[in-house]
Design a protein that fits this description.
Elements lengths: L18 E7 L4 E7 L4 E6 H4 L2
Antiparallel strand pairs: 1-2, 2-3
């Protein structure tokens, strides 16, 4: 008999509507970090990670 797959609930993340964006630019790369007011990083991206 086939086993039934267990379903798990998706984790809900609370994000504040107000935050800060930090941009770090060098000759080789640009890094952008989005943080909340307490300084915890919510998301980040870099041009090198995107393949440029």
């Amino acid at each position: 008999m086939a086993k039934t797959a267990k379903t798990s609930k998706k984790k809900v993340v609370k994000v504040d509507p107000i935050g800060r964006a930090y941009v770090s630019a060098s000759f080789n790369n640009i890094i952008i970090s989005l943080t909340n007011n307490t300084g915890q990083v919510i998301s980040w991206a870099s041009a090198g990670k995107m393949g440029f």
